[in-house]
Amino acid sequence: RVLECQGLPIVNGQCDPYATVTLAGPSRQSEAKKTKVKKKTNNPHFDEVFYFEVTRPSSYNKKSHFDIEDVDEVDKMEIRVDLWNASNLKFGDEFLGELRLPLKFLRQSSSYEAWYFLQPRDNGNKSLKPDDLGSLRLNVVYTEDHVFSSDYYSPLRDVLLKSADVEPVSASAAHILGEVCREKQEAAIPLVRLFLHYGRIVPFISAIANAEVKRTQDPNTIFRGNSLTSKCIDETMKLAGMHYLQVTLKPIIDEICQVHKPCEIDPVKLKDGENLENNRENLRQYVDRIFTVITKSGVSCPTVMCDIFFSLRESAAKRFQGDPDVRYTAVSSFIFLRFFAPAILSPNLFQLTPHHPDPQTSRTLTLISKTIQTLGSLSKSKSANFKESYMATFYDYFNEQKYADAVKNFLDLISSSGRRDHKSIEQPILLKEGFMIKRAQGRKRFGMKNFKKRWFRLTNHEFTYQKSKGDHPLCSIPIENILAVERLEEESFKMKNMFQVIQPERRVLYIQANNCVEAKDWIDILTKVSQCNKKRLTVYHPSAYLNGHWLCCKATADNTPGCTPCTGGLPANIQLDIDGDRETERIYSLFNLYMPKLEKMQEACGSKSVYDGPEEEEYSTFIIDDPKETYKTLKLIIEGVATLEQEHAQYKRDKFKKTKYGSQEHPIGDKSFQTYIRQQSEISAHSI
């Protein structure tokens, strides 16, 4: 946390300071992170937080423990904070001073806050006295996880992973972690990573979301609080949706940052020579482009996010049956309000830009973000949503029905799950329809395999075609029977823009779209809805089977497995590099830290099940629906934590015994000298 500076040098009569923070080490690619620029002050207040993670090096192979050089690696790292003056000169920014903090010192205690003198660069110029450069106040927190091998964590991990199946979910270990942590965020980060790693995130979030919806009284406040549910969904979107954000928003955000078009529409803030109408038009074009990019991106939305949105939509629609819009607002309150709008507002926090945008760009992004957020929220009286009259006037451009329709279609697509258990509740959602040409599938033994024009319809339940719009379907393929959707080589039928829908028993439907754009759209959306199918193929034939052989690989049997890997079309689930044991260790240390609260919660369960009167003040903060179940889980957690605590203590004792100070590996230094003396005295005490 870079807090503040005092007495920075003034360069050429000005001082517009900012700091860059790096964690540098012998084998670490150091990325510099920047604070905002503070204008016209040499005593700036930054108060910005930066996180750095030291993970095991990629060369690390799964040994049962870290090798000693990894620990040395950490000792060789240092935190570097450089202060710069943001100058308008063409030579670039001027260096003001730096501070280097070796991690070695931080490992002795976990949290430091102190003032430091800024030092000149080590360039042999020793004439500067250090106090000429001013000073910097920093707060550094260092946490170290000692991770055991997997089997140590089994008991605690099993209790956590069962969370989705516990009835009621408030009695589950994951929910209890959310109850005892000071900030819900603390609990959400390791929980989401653990559940993603073990493929349990969707059932877990469905369970806690469902419980939260049941507690919600007013459909307008659905998922608005900072509950465990919303924090977990935020975290999942950040991890699973990173690539999705990159492909949708990055190109246009980069352009906004580079081109610097004036977009200020507040008459009070207009600069000289700027024209309000031009600015409005610039902003309108940006909003329109971003809106289109987002609402057309449904097919790229990661499966795990779609499955979560599907269960939010179902829970909300079931709970508030009289409100037809709640199925949309439940989803838009995440995808627009907590994903796209914040990413547009602060692209640096979502890895879309390396640093904070400059003030003018930042203002443009704020205006775009506000408008997109309102468009996505589908509220009835739009213009009334803005405190500022200039925003309300600007928003009139977007008060057309087509914008609301586009949002609804987008929300329909990303919340229609490919999972099969819901035909009963849900009306099929129409995703795409239109005329295309198909080749007969050869269902009859004899009969011409000719080409016919048909009206195709795709819902989230089935893919059908009929003679013309509104007719009875001639053929219906359930979504779960779509095993792959791939392009078809032109050589097969000497026809362009063809693709194939592969079904069980090697049945293939060959279709020709009107043009290459249409073909791509159909392939993408069909791939999207069939992505979760259990039997999806991994290989296919890029050409047709004609005259007794496959044109692509010349194989003669019509049931020969494919000769080319399927494209899959989309990054279905981006593989995340998560270490499940490390996350379980994090959760253990949180439970350990909040042990007094776990014990309080146990008391609360006891008092609740025995005594049903008004609650004691200190117990009322916990959500306890079923005291008996909750007590059972708490007992398991406390036992699991105690066992791990013993293991850690044992490990430290063993390590202490093995470390010989004064040996070649551990020379005695000022810090280790006291340890050496203590060790010697312990040894002599034992020998006595």
Automatic annotation (TrEMBL):
It comes from Cephalopterus ornatus (Amazonian umbrellabird). Keywords: GTPase activation, Metal-binding, Repeat, Zinc, Zinc-finger. The keyword Disulfide bond does not apply. Residues 429-531 form the PH domain. The keyword Amino-acid biosynthesis does not apply. GO terms for biological process: intracellular signal transduction; negative regulation of Ras protein signal transduction. PANTHER family: RAS GTPASE-ACTIVATING PROTEIN 3, RAS GTPASE-ACTIVATING PROTEINS. Residues 183-377 form the Ras-GAP domain. It holds the Pfam family PH. This is RASA3 protein. One of its GO terms (molecular function) is GTPase activator activity.
